[in-house]
């Protein structure tokens, strides 16, 4: 807290840069969000099982395609503005913060509308089936609602106050699941299954909209939209926007190409793998949000803290990805058969590869946030250009030969190339050395290979033990990580110190 030196007796003003720099607050926020994402992922998984079992193979493929297309629309709706504007939301000038917040929300709303038009225009111009066009028109409302909703999340993130966001996301997913089950019972049709997702986004937007006005958050967006602020936001975000757009294209182009080069049945089988890999992406993004706030607060005043926080985050992201791979790899086929039914069992190989790809993606997400926090985002687009080129080329070669398995191979190779190039770029452009804990990550990779191979061998001989094999593999991995001191220095959430 700092006093106004001009007006004696004035109210103390909070410097939110100090709030943003609190690592324990960031750890608490991360744990809160991750707990919420566990609930959301579990409920979302149940919902996807209900939908997949209720629709035909072709309809499930169409459902998966529609939401993959809407994911691509984040190229238009995000533009990297959220990560850039974060630096403007911490400070001591409340009026400036309020005006920045309102302008940011308004900009995101406009971008959401533009993304909706692009999505509907895409399926109309390429003459997709009528049912896909109608489903896209309805499901596209998710983009319109989720875009300003994410802007509100960024406001909460800047204060490490993520409890309301976590509750809103959890309850929204409960609502979506309840409506999905009702749709499966009373009207199991493609268009009807789209509506619960829209209801979920509307609920979250309303809850966060009311919550952000609380005095304790310290933002209270202004009533002045001030569109003149949009240009500086967009100009500052242009390099990141280009890189982010290419990254999203790199992530989703496989499903779009599969829909054009193969059948909707192939899209549906391939999308099962994404139901698992998306969980890793979701957790990585959730964890990266508080971490990015810490990095913004540390740059450039405290480079030692910047390095320490980056290394810690990279180790945790690596461990998280490793846990997911060793748990899923041996048990992929029986787990998919249990959840989605026998007709989806052939997708197990592709699903394994997509989970490996998602583990690599976590380090890419961290690298992007790191560059943005340091104002070095201009270095990233070239990495995404190379990655997208590799992905498209491999898909053109492999999809006609191997269908969705070829798309999965393309994805893993692409992410391996991208993560390597990205951290080479970071090493060469950042004035801080030792940001990536290579020894810890190399040890984790070796453990993953050994445990995944051993687990697969056991499941092949004793198929009924697959749940136990996955649990034991995770326990052994985490135990060895602690025994080998890979997690030294990781902060834990604790109570705030009394003032």
TrEMBL record:
This protein's UniProt keywords: Cell membrane, Membrane, Transmembrane, Transmembrane helix
Compartment(s) of residence: Cell membrane
Transmembrane annotation, as ranges: 31-51, 63-85, 105-125, 132-156, 176-198, 237-260, 280-301, 313-330, 350-373, 380-400, 406-426, 438-459, 465-488
Matching InterPro entries: Poly_Biosynth_Transport, Polysacc_synth
Membrane topology of the entry: Multi-pass membrane protein
Domain of life: Bacteria
Gene Ontology, cellular component aspect: plasma membrane
Pfam families registered for this protein in UniProt: Polysacc_synt
Protein name (database record): Flippase
């Amino acid at each position: 807290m700092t006093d106004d030196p001009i007006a004696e007796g004035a109210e103390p003003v909070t410097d939110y840069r100090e709030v943003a720099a609190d690592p324990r607050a960031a750890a608490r926020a991360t744990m809160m969000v991750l707990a919420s994402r566990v609930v959301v992922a579990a409920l979302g998984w149940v919902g996807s099982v209900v939908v997949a079992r209720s629709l035909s193979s072709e309809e499930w493929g169409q459902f998966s395609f529609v939401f993959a297309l809407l994911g691509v629309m984040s190229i238009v709706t995000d533009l990297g503005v959220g990560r850039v504007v974060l630096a403007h939301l911490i400070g001591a000038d409340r009026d400036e913060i309020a005006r920045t917040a309102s302008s940011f929300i308004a900009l995101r709303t406009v971008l959401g509308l533009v993304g909706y038009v692009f999505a509907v225009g895409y399926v109309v111009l390429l003459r997709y089936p009528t049912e896909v066009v109608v489903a896209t028109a309805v499901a596209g409302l998710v983009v319109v609602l989720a875009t300003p909703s994410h802007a509100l999340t960024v406001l909460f993130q800047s204060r490490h106050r993520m409890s309301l966001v976590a509750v809103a996301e959890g309850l929204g997913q409960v609502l979506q699941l309840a409506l999905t089950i009702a749709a499966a019972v009373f009207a199991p049709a493609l268009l009807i299954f789209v509506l619960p997702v829209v209801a979920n986004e509307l609920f979250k937007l309303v809850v966060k909209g009311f919550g952000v006005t609380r005095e304790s958050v310290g933002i209270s967006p202004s009533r002045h939209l001030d569109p003149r602020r949009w240009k500086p936001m967009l100009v500052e975000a242009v390099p990141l926007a280009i890189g982010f757009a290419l990254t999203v294209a790199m992530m989703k182009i496989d499903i779009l190409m599969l829909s054009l080069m193969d059948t909707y049945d192939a899209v549906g089988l391939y999308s099962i793998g994404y139901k698992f890999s998306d969980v890793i992406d979701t957790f990585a993004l959730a964890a990266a949000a508080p971490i990015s706030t810490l990095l913004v607060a540390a740059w450039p005043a405290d480079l030692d803290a910047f390095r320490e926080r980056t290394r810690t985050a990279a180790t945790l992201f690596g461990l998280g990805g490793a846990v997911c791979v060793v748990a899923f790899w041996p048990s992929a086929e029986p787990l998919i058969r249990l959840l989605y039914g026998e007709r989806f069992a052939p997708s197990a190989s592709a699903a394994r590869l997509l989970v490996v790809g998602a583990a690599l993606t976590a380090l890419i997400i961290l690298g992007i946030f790191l560059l943005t926090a340091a104002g070095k985002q201009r270095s990233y687009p070239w990495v995404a250009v190379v990655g997208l080129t590799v992905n498209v080329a491999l898909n053109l070669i492999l999809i006609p030969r191997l269908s969705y398995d070829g798309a999965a191979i393309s994805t893993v190779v692409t992410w391996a190339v991208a993560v390597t190039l990205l951290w080479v770029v970071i090493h060469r452009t950042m004035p801080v050395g030792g940001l990536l804990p290579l020894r810890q990550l190399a040890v984790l990779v070796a453990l993953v290979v050994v445990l995944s191979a051993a687990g697969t061998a056991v499941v092949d001989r004793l198929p009924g033990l697959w749940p136990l094999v996955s649990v034991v593999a995770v326990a052994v991995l985490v135990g060895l990580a602690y025994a080998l001191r890979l997690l030294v220095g990781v902060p834990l959430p604790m109570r705030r110190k009394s003032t």
